[in-house]
Amino acid sequence: MVAYLEVTNLWKSFGDTESVLQGLGFVQERGEILCLLGASGCGKTTVLQILAGLMPADAGRVLLGGRDQDGIPVHARRIGYVFQNHVLFPHLSVGRNVEYGLRMLKWPSRQRGRRVREMLELVDLAGYEERLVRGLSGGESQRVALARSLAPAPDLLLLDEPLSSVDQRLRGDLVTQLRSVLETQSITAVHVTHDLEEAYFMGDRVAFVHGGRVNRIDSPSALVANPATVACARYLGMGNIFALDTPEGQRLREWATSAAGTGGDGGLTNATHLLIRPRTVLRSGHGETRQGLPCSGTVTSIRPKVNEVEVELRLTQPDLEGATIRLDLARTGIDSDLLTALESSARDRDARPWTLDPKGVVWLVDEVSE
Amino acid sequence: MNGRLRVLVWALPPFIFLGAFYFLPLVRILVTALGPDRLVGGGQAVLPDWRSLATVLGFTTWQALVSTAASLVAGLPLAWWLRDHGSRLRSVARLLLTVPFVMPVVVTASAFVALAGPSGLLNRWLMGWFDLSAPPIQLMHTFGIIILAHMFYNTSVVVRVVSGFWSQQDRRLADAAGTLGATAWRTLVTVEAPLVLPAVVSSALLVFLFCFSSFGVVLILGGLRFSTLEVAIYRQAVSYFNLPAAAVLALIQLAVTFTAMSLYTRLQRRHAVPQQVEATEQFADDEPRTRGHWIGDGLGTAAALILVSPLVALTGQSFSVGTSEWSLVNYAGLLQGRADSAFLASPVEAVGNSVRNALATMVISLVLGIGMAYTLFLMPGRAGRWLDPVFLLPLGTSAVTLGLGYIISMGPLRTSPLLVPAAHALIASPFVLRVILPALRRLQPGLRQASAVLGATPRQTWWRVELPLLLPACAVAAVFAFAVSMGEFGASLLIARPEHPTMPLMIFGLLSRPGLANLGQAQAMSVVLMAVTSASIFALDRLPVAIREF
């Protein structure tokens, strides 16, 4: 990988509180879209502000195209920034907004006009030049903000939750359009979001930010397939995480490794936690083959949801007594045998034998060392 | 440019200006009053003796108390009536009630002369109806007319402050009392009145402050019999040229007003009396209309009309005083320099002087106000909080005191044509600051960042983004500064050169001279001034309940 944007060991704290950034770093290729994913307040926006030069870092280095950005004032950085609430200039028309950066670059008037038209066409707003910013819908102003930041052809585009102030229903379309615009411009972009779906779709790679650093960085599909860290698994909404550093945890580890195909051996050495994916296939009874993880337990609740059924299973076998697993069983995947077993277990409150698909077991570490 | 340097650039002009035109004069007053050279000056009875001092102070306090009580009596029922923003009638009434608030003091004086003076409207009617040979109403130069004129001004202060606060109270509290069985009257007494009490106290304090430092009303309408502290300062300084005595009086005046001001601000902070009164349609008038509503509307409208009646009388009289029928004689008189005039300038020249002063005031106060606003905006934390009241200090200083300070301290600048606009700008700057600072704070911080990442330097950002967005506020502030300057009386009276009178000074001069022709011209000029300053009402709606010191 040829590094285009290289962010190393960023530190930042506000006042006396704990540092927001604690040595955050990542490397990005030219033309790549990187999503910074994380909970609100985890420092994603701070990273963008530091990259743009709007805020100094306490420590760390930012190299863009091999050039150290330290000491370059904001207006000289050639960075595009799409703000969370768009911040269009309310006193300027749509066209003037898009033109603003070109004026700063002292482009001649005719070229400016052409570029503005081009940019507005790009975001599907042709003919909007004279419109007032005030009358725009959320989606429109988001696109104007995008056109405005792209017009001066920046070296790097930063997007700070660009869709967060847009109506939920429009987001799907906008995110598709955003992705295709960025692709046609083949621009290097850092996209900040807390939305899992958005990150999954937008990012060539996703960097999960936690505890002031990049906790996990990988392609979206790899990230979901193997969250690898406890924090990332939690953020992805996966429950059923069990610590391994207790006597119970030790027995849990033995039980989980008893079946073939449980997440490979790599995790075994330094894994600290065990995850049982919520979307794991569950079968009734202990099968004949060793292709499953046998357990016994009581179904304590069955809660039907729109597309799936949430089942709470309390394990009763001696080594795992009391552990509760929540599973989201796809409605279509429940056969009548399983359904009967689940219902009667829930009704009679009796422990029954079950078999879990071993692919549902994932080993986790506290933090991936790079 | 780093942050600290930027603050300095903005802070420097206001600091230099305040230093030269506010603190220096004040210090000189202090030195004159307490310094060793106060005893020089003939050696005999330079300082006022204790008895006359007590008399002046006693009268000043007494008339202020009576005026405050009278304004509350008139204003509270109106505030109750206007507490919800329902009908159009009420919004018109509210606008009408704002008119007195912005009237220059000379216009008010003219208006009271036009209504109740010896040849005023009421006396002319009464004499006509009952065939009397002498005017039956003898209000001029009485205690009563002073109180009435103060009521004219300050009823609207009470109404604005109290009804604004009232309308922001939760109406459901009163509804709750109603469901618990309280009658409307009991609800008013037991629930609503205690809730609005802080606003009532605030407005009373404000009115007291205004009346305590009343100058023009007492000087023009009270005649020689009455003297408040302000009038005494003026007479000592101008009539007797006894500057040390004037300075001592000015110190007392300053002490009282600053005490009242700090009490007022503390009260405001504690009770968070709403700063800005905006029309909210939140509680539309959807209750069924009872007879009580009709009576309330009728009485309220009548009261509002009575309150503005002096201005109506003024307008009418300006077309009819000195002539037997309606004519423009008095206005025509303004256009010709009068040959027998004791003035050193013609009315037209006075209009020119006033407009020139007002334009200069506008420019100076905008530069000052913008500088102050940015200083407070950029100044971090505690220093900013400490500076805010410093910038508002001119509000707590009476115009006459300021004028006196200029007489004492300005030396060669005394004759500069810019001295009057400087004083006016100082008086207007707190208003300008109060309009611009909120606008500046409302600017999305992201706008500056967006401009910067698009390649604009801080200076380009200021010019292309911040300034255009501040323009509406600047326009409002400019209108206000213009109106303040056009109507300002106290400071101008002390520092304007006799050969360059402003309109208020000309009106004052005309009013204090005998003859219907002079009176007619005074009233015609007052109407012109009234028209100009009325424009500022619309600016006033953008302003927090302001402290008037015309």
Describe the structure.
The complex is a heterodimer of chains A (370) and B (550). Chain A has 370 residues and is α+β, with helices and mostly antiparallel strands. Chain A has two domains: 5-225, Rossmann fold (3-Layer(aba) Sandwich); 241-364, no CATH class. Chain A is built from eleven helices and 18 strands. A six-stranded mixed beta sheet of chain A has the order 6-7-8-3-9-10, sandwiched between helices. Chain A is elongated and about 80 Å long. The mean pLDDT of chain A is 86. Chain B has 550 residues and is mostly helical. Chain B has one domain: MetI-like fold, CATH 1.10.3720. Chain B is 74% helix and 0% strand.
Brief rundown of the structure:
The complex is a heterodimer of chains A (370) and B (550). Chain A is α+β, with helices and mostly antiparallel strands.
Specify the number of helices of chain A.
Answer: 11
Q: How would a crystallographer describe the biggest sheet of chain B?
A: none
Structural class, judged by helices and strands of chain B? mainly alpha
Tally of distinct domains of chain B:
1
Query: Would you tell me the structural class of the helices and strands of chain A?
Result: alpha+beta
Spell the H/E element sequence of chain B: HHHHHHHHHHHHHHHHHHHHHHH
- Unreliable spans of chain B: 40-45, 273-285, 544-550
Largest interface: A-B, 25 and 17 residues
Strand order of the largest sheet of chain A: 6-7-8-3-9-10
How much helical structure, as a percent, in the residues of chain A? 25-40%
The name CATH uses for the topology of the largest domain in chain A is Rossmann fold
Helix coverage percent of chain B:
over 70%
- CATH homologous superfamily assignment of the largest domain in chain A: P-loop containing nucleotide triphosphate hydrolases
Q: What's the CATH architecture of the largest domain in chain A?
A: 3-Layer(aba) Sandwich
The tally of domains of chain A stands at 2
Count of DSSP strands of chain A = 18
Order of helices and strands of chain A: EEEHEEEHHHEHEHEEHHEHHEEEEEHEE
Q: Name the CATH class of chain B.
A: Mainly Alpha
